[in-house]
Input
Amino acid sequence: MDSLKQEDETMAFDGNFVHALLGELEVLKWGKINRIQQIDETSMVFKVRSAGSNHNLLISAHPMYARFHLTTHKYEFPFEPPMFLRVARKHLEGGIIQEIRQLGNDRRVEIHIQSRNEIGDEIRRILILEIMGRHSNIVITDADYRILDGVKHLTPNNNSRTIMPGFDYTAPPTEDKLNPRTDAIEELPSKIDFNAGRLNRQILSNVEGFSPLFVKEVEHNAGYFTIRNIVPAIRETMEKAENIKPVMYTDGDRDIFYFTPLSHLGEAYETYGSLSQLMDDYYHDRYRKSLIKQKAQDYLHLIEREYEKTERKVEKLKEDLAEAAEKDKYQKYGEMLTAFMHQVKPYDESIEVIDYYTDEPLEIPLDKNLSASDNAQKYYKRYNKLKTRENSAAVQLDRAREDLEYFAGLLHQMDSITTEEEVDEIREELAEQGIIKNNRKQSSKKKKNKIQLHAYRTTGGLDVLVGKNNKQNDYLTSRKAQNNHLWFHTKDIPGSHVVITHPASEIEDQDILEAAMLAAYHSKAQESESVPVDYTEIKHVHKVSGAKPGFVTYTDQKTVHVTPMKSKVEQMESGRTN
Output
């Protein structure tokens, strides 16, 4: 961490946070692990029965969302248990949690579990959680710290330590730091060069479990660091931190959470009843979004390939049409050869005649191995072939250009996906278009869910609905909206269908401009200025039979030019609606 300005928001989950969180996890002590399930390659849920209640302990070594806490959220689990899950179930299911302890003031935790082997003998297992950003890991060992398995394997050749079954467990290589919860912290002034500057970084390098966030709070309490106040400031701040009150702050475009209020961040905008509740809400939302992004990424790559393939097809068809443009020349060659056939001598490689259409000389290439008649027939055949190709290529080019526009629209829609439902709508559309295989199980499940539109409200109090993909666009324009509602779309630019659900005759100019701005914002021109937006009544908007999803034609439109504003869009947003 080079500076506090580069502070990673996950560093709010520091050693001090872990110390506070372990107090909440005391409820798991002497609890029985009834079931273990794995969410993904790095995250697991332990179902624990303790003190007459059921608890779900989530542990994760995700490179961005590594953490552990109690959870109340529901997760989907893969049908086939991964190998690490099989090992965990074999050694930990049915076991009793005897101890949960933090190692020093670090983000490393050991969960000691008493269990039984296949023949009923008591065995001791240790579940080790290492929360270290992208180097996070979950390791299972026996009582002697011999590794049974790890979520992430580290091989002997390329790493400073080995995480593989059969090897002895060794802690991650870290600098020798002072534990601020012991008297060792008194040594800190001797390790700090007060003349070298960057005191915050020096503290981080010498004190275990501190984050830039916490050091900044210490500095805020101290005013400025001196050799005399540095340790008292740390002790005072840690004493204040005994007041556990889960809080969430906003800092620009990001949220920062912590286990206790931080004076230097001002007033928290949200508080929570427990640390687990805070982390559950904070990480689940981000985890869900990462899943959506990952799920959407597969379809994005597919659409990109289809777009590139169609782009190549358009270029090839253009070449075919350019070649077909020569057809009239070959027809003339055939006609002139037929008219002046008597002038052709055997083995001539060309003949010059007078073009009676232009009265200009015309040289006609000949195949010397063919007769004059056969040469003429050869040119007529080439003419007919090119004419057929031209007609076919023209039709295919129109279709390919429509496909290209369609895939360009899909690419834009993929950029604005925010929910799993929207991913499913894209998947369903791709299946309907024959681009991917249709999953009947998913399709039948999806039909139970109504399409949800994005709702906004103008300053004049009128409701505006926006479709963010073709499914939503078709539903909004063809089924939801009424004939006298006003419909908006960016002019010749891929974008969303937008409708003011109010009689057009009663809509004010300001409402029209705001709805047009929404259309511009939800289009490929989102970052542009003075975006042209067409609007007309729904009765003038028509779905073309056989056209791609989301494609319509419209008449009687007017055009306004607007500049998208994110702040205004957020102000107008009012949620989702069917």
Observations:
- Residues 397 and 537 are 31 Å apart (CA to CA).
